[in-house]
Structure formats: structure tokens, C-alpha cells
Amino acid sequence: MLEQAVEHLIKNIVDFPDDVSVKSRENARGEMLRVRVNPEDIGRVIGRSGRTANAIRTVVQALSDHKVRVDIMDVRR
């Protein structure tokens, strides 16, 4: 459910929604959502001083009942 929610949020922010992908992984720290976007959209998703990225992380934590980490990266990686 979290993957779909994050994907929906980010696809409505970016210029290239077809390049957005969200993958979930479990690690020692808890769940991690890896978000990949087009390199031209990375600034839009992170926002000025990281405000948009922090807002996305806040929404994810509000939706989740456990610790979730959100990593934002471009598709070149």
C-alpha cells in the first residue's frame, strides 16, 4: 500500500510520470522505499531545501505503523 501511495504522490509532481518507480525492501533498520525518477525531475521531487522530500517522508510515516525510510534517486543509478 505504501508503494502505491508514494508512487501516486510523486507521479503528480513530476514532468515524466512514466519514469517513476517505487520498490520496497526490508533491511535491518526496517522498510525502505527506493524511489527512482527521471534526472530532470529530481529537483522537483526534492524541492527547495528538501521541503518536498520531507513532506513525502512525513506522509509515509503517517500512513505507516512502522519505521519506513524513503530514498529518492534518479534513473541513472
TrEMBL record:
Annotated signal peptide = none
Per UniProt, the keywords (alphabetical) are: Cytoplasm, RNA-binding
State its location(s).
Answer: Cytoplasm
Q: Which GO terms describe its cellular component?
A: cytoplasm
* Record keyword Cytoplasm present: yes
Q: Which Pfam families match?
A: KH_KhpA-B
Name where it mostly resides: cytoplasm
Q: Which family does it belong to?
A: Belongs to the KhpA RNA-binding protein family.
> What job does the chain carry out?
A probable RNA-binding protein.
Protein name (database record)? RNA-binding protein KhpA
Task: Tell me what gene encodes this.
Answer: khpA
